[in-house]
Specification:
four-stranded mixed beta sheet; two-stranded antiparallel sheet; 6 strands; 60s Ribosomal Protein L30, Chain: A; single chain; 2-methylcitrate dehydratase PrpD; alpha+beta
Length: about 450
């Protein structure tokens, strides 16, 4: 194994980092990510598409040595559990986002780690450090604007970066040597794909699930001495260079100071609204203006947003829940109407509301290069010509305006309170928020299984 390759350096980092090397602040943030991941995954239980995925996975279960799935607590092979849980945690589009790289890290990472954690009996503290290590690898790879460039050119950053992240995380968790870790990461990276054209459909959460599942499989193959393309991230024909068609691109930034601060998981962002993160600043502005207007009397709405927000979330129509989450117009209409942007606000009742659809039709979206991906400016005018303006410099949930433990606790109980028996939700939250003690994973998963 050549440690001068990028894959080799990621492998050295994954294999060479001890549990104690990960700062306590990064471990605490990993727990926060775990709480949020469970919440959005369990919250998806009422979604018809999630039920369809669960049914499909049941038909291919391997009960010989299984891992639990979030929706049913039932057993599946590690790869299938990772697939299902990666999908479930991304269906609501309510999961975390590392804004600099546009990586939804928890979806593929926790789905993969908990599946191998159950099947291989990995200690909880090593799963936490594995999450931080894998997150570091994936987020650093997508830094320096690469995640945004991938997105602009039609690639879904999460399954591209997430396969590298999840394979590095598993390599750390399973205590692979650097050679085995390198082949695991290389094999996972070689499967990278996913398109922004899938946004607004079930293919988007499937991308996250496949990233987790492919990483589990890649680790199993590497452990069995299957070799991967160790130079896949290097040179003019490397993975990212090919995806971006930039054959002079170098990725040295991804491994410089890889084990040094900042730990990227500490710069992760959580979502207060169940929609694309690029809609959140506009929702914040709309909710602020809702206290100054009567939505039915508005005749004009202008939203100044980052150009990428227009590209990704500029849908003219919102006919389904998945489409509504990627429609700035619909999201702004929700906010102006005083709705909280919960998962229920992207259900059939709201989508079929003629007043909301009419209001959404009045929204003009303006690509504004002075805006960031977490800022927006909203201007409204009513039938009498009265105008109001509100600007959001940093959306709630962003790095500069973060959601903290108390916010995530409320989000957790809002999402799971009607999915679990009354006594189990507090027990699960306590287990996850203190994750790291022996037996925590088995106990947490047992709380998902009926009758236990």
């Amino acid at each position: 194994m050549n440690a001068t390759t990028l894959i080799g350096q990621f492998a050295e980092f994954a294999a060479g980092t001890a549990v104690a090397d990960v700062p306590a602040s990064a471990v605490d943030q990993a727990r926060l990510c775990l709480v949020d991941w469970f919440a959005v995954g369990i919250g998806a239980a009422g979604d018809a598409q999630a039920a369809a995925v669960a049914k499909a996975l049941e038909q291919r279960q391997d009960n010989r040595r299984g891992a639990a799935t979030l929706l049913t607590g039932g057993q599946a092979s590690a790869a299938d559990a990772a697939l299902g849980n990666g999908v479930f945690s991304h269906i609501l589009d309510f999961d975390d986002t590392h804004v600099p790289s546009i990586l939804h890290g928890s979806g593929p990472l926790w789905a993969a780690l908990l599946a191998v954690g159950e099947t291989h009996g990995i200690a909880e503290d090593r799963l936490l450090s594995g999450f931080a290590v894998g997150f570091q690898a994936g987020a650093r790879l997508g830094s320096q604007g690469l995640g945004e460039r991938l997105t602009r050119q039609g690639w879904h950053a999460t399954p591209v970066l997430g396969r590298v992240a999840a394979a590095a995380a598993i390599s750390h968790a399973r205590q692979f040597d650097p050679v085995t870790a390198a082949h695991a990461i290389a094999l996972a990276a070689s499967q990278a794909t996913g398109f922004t054209r899938s946004f607004g459909s079930m293919a988007k959460p499937l991308n996250a699930g496949r990233a987790a599942s492919d990483a589990v499989l890649a680790a199993d193959l590497a452990h069995a001495s299957v070799q991967g393309p160790l130079g896949i991230l290097d040179g003019p024909d490397g993975l990212v260079q090919t995806l971006l068609q930039d054959h002079g691109l170098t990725l040295d930034h991804a491994v410089q100071g890889l084990s040094e601060p900042p730990w990227e998981v500490s710069r992760n962002s959580f979502k207060p609204y169940a929609s694309c993160q690029l809609t959140h600043a506009a929702i914040d502005a709309a909710r602020a203006l809702s206290r100054q207007c009567a939505p039915q009397r508005l005749r004009g709405i202008r939203a100044h947003i980052h150009p990428l927000a227009l590209k990704i979330a500029g849908r003219a129509t919102a006919r389904t829940s998945a489409e509504a989450k990627f429609s700035l117009r619909f999201c702004i209409a929700l906010g102006l109407s005083g709705y909280p942007g919960s998962m229920h606000d992207f259900g059939d009742e709201r989508i079929s509301d003629p007043a909301l659809q009419s209001l959404a039709g009045k929204v003009e979206l303006i690509a504004d290069t002075t805006q960031t991906r977490t800022s927006a400016r909203l201007e409204i005018v009513d039938d009498d010509g009265h105008e109001a303006v509100h600007s959001i410099p940093h959306a709630f949930g962003s790095i500069e305006n973060p959601m903290r433990w108390e916010h995530l606790e409320r989000k957790f109980f809002d999402l799971v309170h009607d999915r679990l028996p009354a006594d189990r939700a507090p027990a699960l939250f306590d287990t996850l928020s203190n994750f790291g003690q022996p037996g925590g994973l088995a106990y947490g998963m047992s709380l998902l299984r009926p009758g236990e």
